Amino acid sequence: MSENQDILLAAKSVRTWRNMEIKLLSKAGCDDLSYRPQNGMSSFGWVLAHQAAIYDFSVNMLIEQGPPMNPEFFKLYQPGTDGEWAGTPLSEIQAYYDATEANLLDWAKKAEPADFEKVIEEGTAPSFFVGQSCREVLTNAFTHLNYHTGHLTALRKDWEKIKSG
What we know:
Four Helix Bundle (Hemerythrin (Met), subunit A), mainly alpha, globular
């Protein structure tokens, strides 16, 4: 299996788990994107939008060294924001996720082996990413995305606990 296929499979897995949790949240009656658990964790809408921002940051800003796909939207849900929901409708959040995911998939389909080896240089990214290859950047992106899918699970469980009394 090629690295290109690995990236495509990882993105598919992330989407499957994310969609499952969104459906379970909806089934539990949680459609309130502003819902923020009692423990202060990030809001439901913020988590969903932040996942799209992860793809945007990883491909457009780190790998391609350009601006985010949607700078205003990215600014609301980037790492370091406080996890509040900015009032963005779910349809816009999903459209942003779909677009940033499609952008990643397009990059992965076209990438040559040397593209995965390209190293992030100092002065072009936060220090955490300096010295990482694009392969490592994408691995970190998928880890980060799955971390936040875990937050969706925690949101659902908190919601269910509150609703059951």
